[in-house]
């Protein structure tokens, strides 16, 4: 039965792939389309001012055709290849160098626009977003040389426009590089977080089954004596080694002071039975709503009083299983640390925004500092079996313990839209 409790279940993690540079690609797509329309509008407005308007019109047809077939190429980094960027920049350079051949010298001297006009900046920014600030700097330098060659001199307005495009491309390229580095760091952090949560889940299952069985074998072996005593000694050694392994793997993360009873060493038969039913709830296809009362009712007995609402207390199967596991861990602590004569009470409250389960006992309470000592010793009943479970559910586990007056653990699981029915 203990094996059934610790069987591996798929971790329900939702991985969201984010890309902070994707909005830049969308913006570049829109800019290229609008800039191409603007260049065509400028040509149409100054048609009669060109020395060779048909030659300028031929380039505009080339630009329109190029945009019609390639506007999707800058929709993402995967589609925007290096070869495309080179050809795209070539289309812009051809338009710039073609301008003196189709336009009048007076218009060029007066600072008239080149044939591609501001569309050239889109070709340059594509390099910056794709390859970073270095690619952007090289592409803007090539476009700048072409603009100066078209003008035939280092005119102030031409140099100003060239420097503006160069600074913009370098700045955007640098921002993209920083964003990509941040994405990689975030992805790595999310992987570490997911791995840590999975280790904690496995450690909880081990604590609730294997460790407690080993502790029980150790005590029974010592009580029986003979060969059983040697078996008990070996079981005790394995328990200590396993606790050390778990605590060393998880202790680095740190969760602050423990907030519940000390983890128990024994595994009552009722706990194993309930753990099996909890595993069934967690493995319920589709994570359908499960009545929490069915998981907690078997705890009731001569030493445990169980109070429940008259209506079903529905939670998703996985949430019900984790909450039931936390209650079992709390009752283990009562049995192992409050004494054989201790009485325990379980109270289930079904509120509109949360499900609250309170486990109270009339034992001697918990001495101050005992919880922190237990976690350092590798006894992770509170840190993992109780607090860890509730933390993963987005809930909380609060402890109130007065020496000589017992201990009370309040477990609160918030309701989501899924289980609000």
UniProtKB/TrEMBL annotation:
* Keywords for the protein's UniProt record, in alphabetical order: Kinase, Membrane, Transferase, Transmembrane, Transmembrane helix, Two-component regulatory system
* Name by which UniProt lists this protein: Signal transduction histidine kinase
Give a Pfam family name.
Answer: DUF5931
Does the record bear Membrane in its keywords? Answer: yes
- Which residue spans traverse the membrane? 24-44, 56-75, 84-102, 122-146, 158-176
Q: Which GO terms describe its molecular function?
A: phosphorelay sensor kinase activity; protein dimerization activity
Domain Histidine kinase/HSP90-like ATPase, residue spans: 318-417
Q: Which InterPro entries match?
A: DUF5931, HATPase_C_sf, HATPase_dom, Sensor_HK_TwoCompSys, Sig_transdc_His_kin_sub3_dim/P
Instruction: State a GO cellular component annotated for this protein.
Output: membrane
């Amino acid at each position: 039965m203990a094996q059934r409790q610790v069987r591996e279940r798929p971790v329900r993690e939702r991985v969201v792939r984010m890309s902070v540079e994707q909005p830049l690609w969308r913006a570049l797509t829109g800019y290229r389309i609008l800039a191409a329309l603007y260049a065509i509008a400028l040509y149409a407005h100054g048609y009669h001012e060109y020395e060779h308007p048909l030659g300028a019109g031929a380039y505009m047809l080339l630009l329109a055709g190029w945009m019609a077939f390639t506007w999707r190429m800058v929709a993402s980094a995967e589609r925007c290849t290096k070869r495309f960027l080179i050809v795209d920049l070539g289309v812009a350079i051809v338009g710039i160098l073609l301008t003196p051949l189709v336009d009048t010298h007076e218009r060029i001297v007066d600072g008239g626009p080149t044939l591609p006009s501001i569309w050239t900046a889109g070709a340059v920014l594509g390099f910056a977003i794709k390859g970073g600030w270095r690619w952007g700097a090289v592409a803007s330098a090539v476009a700048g040389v072409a603009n100066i060659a078209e003008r035939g001199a280092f005119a102030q307005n031409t140099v100003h426009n060239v420097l503006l495009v160069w600074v913009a491309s370098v700045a955007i390229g640098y921002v993209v590089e920083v964003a990509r580095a941040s994405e990689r760091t975030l992805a790595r952090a999310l992987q570490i977080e997911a791995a840590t949560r999975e280790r904690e889940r496995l450690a909880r299952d081990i604590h609730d089954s294997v460790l407690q069985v080993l502790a029980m074998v150790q005590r029974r072996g010592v009580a029986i004596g003979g060969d059983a005593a040697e078996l008990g000694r070996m079981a005790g050694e394995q328990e200590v080694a396993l606790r050390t392994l778990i605590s060393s793997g998880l202790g680095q993360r740190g969760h602050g002071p423990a907030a519940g009873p000390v983890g128990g060493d024994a595994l009552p038969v009722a706990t194993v039975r309930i753990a099996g039913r909890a595993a069934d709830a967690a493995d319920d296809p589709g994570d359908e709503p499960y009545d929490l009362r069915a998981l907690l009712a078997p705890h009731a007995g001569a030493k445990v009083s169980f109070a429940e609402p008259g209506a079903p207390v529905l939670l998703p199967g996985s949430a019900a299983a984790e909450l039931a596991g936390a209650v079992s861990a709390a009752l283990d602590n009562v049995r192992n640390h409050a004494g054989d004569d201790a009485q325990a009470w379980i109270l289930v409250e079904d509120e509109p925004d949360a499900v609250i389960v309170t486990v109270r006992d009339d034992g001697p309470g918990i001495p101050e500092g005992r919880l922190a000592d237990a976690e350092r010793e590798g006894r992770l009943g509170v840190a993992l079996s109780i607090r860890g479970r509730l933390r993963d559910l987005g809930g909380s586990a609060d402890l109130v313990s007065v020496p000589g007056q017992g201990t009370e653990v309040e477990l609160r699981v918030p309701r989501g839209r899924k289980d609000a029915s």
